[in-house]
Every structure is written in C-alpha cells, then in structure tokens.
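In full, the data.
>
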Amino acid sequence: MSATEIIQGCIQNDPKYQRLLVVNYSAMLLTVSRRYTPINADAEDVLQDAFIKIFGAIRQFDSNRGKLETWMRKIVINTALKRLNKKCFTHEKTVDQFMEIQLLPSVYEHLQAEDVMALVNTLPDGYRQVFNLAVVEGYPHTEIAKMLGIEPATSRSNLSKAKKLLRKKLSNQEKQELWTRIS
C-alpha cells in the first residue's frame, strides 16, 4: 500500500490505515525518539504523543513540500524536545576542563551503532539535544537555537562540548578496553 493511500485513509480516520501508518513507521520513529529520550519508557511515551499529533495534523501534510517520513520525524523531535524542555537545560561545567583528545582509528573499529547511541545517551540533556539535532539530524545551529530557545553560539558551544565529552568517554573505553559492550 502506498504512503498516499495510507495518508488518505488516516485523513478519513480509518483505523486500518492508522494501524498501517503505525506499523510501517513506528520502528524508525522510535529510534528518533530514543536519541532525545534515552529512557525507553519515555521514548515510547514521546512516540505515542507524537502519533497523536501526527493523526491530528495529517491533513496538513503536503507531499509537495517533503516526504512523509521527514514530516513525522520533525513531529517526533519537537515532541521529545518539548518534553525535555520541561526539565531545565543543563550545562556540565567540567567539560571545559577537557583537553583535545586524539583517538586511534582502531578505537572506532570496535564500536557498533548501539555503542555509539549508548555513549550519546550518557551526555547531559542539553548537549545530547544539540548533538542529535546537529550531527544526526543535520540541522544548522540557527534552527537548533530556535527549537531549543537558546542562542546559536550556545548551540555551537554545546556541540563542541558534547564532542569533547564523547572523545573523553571513548578514550576511557579505550584505556579500559571495554569493547564488548558499552554500558
């Protein structure tokens, strides 16, 4: 069944098509949600809230302006960010003390996608949000700043600090040779 048919069915509030939308896209959207809400139950709550918003706004989707997946991803990201912004935007001052850390290419050979995601999920909320929006989603700092209610310079600074903190965590993993699974 095509995305256009699913969208039309969802516009008509047909449960069959709503179920198809959830089945076809929930795994991908849950992965997006997990980037911003690392606790699995919270990520699932965000996804559920996002699907409610998606079904409520499906009439507004315009295939001439982009893909359905992109439109839904943005809704999931915004839902997750709104939930996280209810908490305060944290900054970790100790990151400023980190020096540039150079890692050997062999360090990266041991990492799997789950390992990288686990490391990113250990970042403080503000750093993780900016890292995911900039590196994973590809948003520019001006748009990240608008989404998070911060200055573009703060976005750039938090991205830099997030990268330094990740390098430090990778360096610690390398020193301890903890490559079987990062926890």
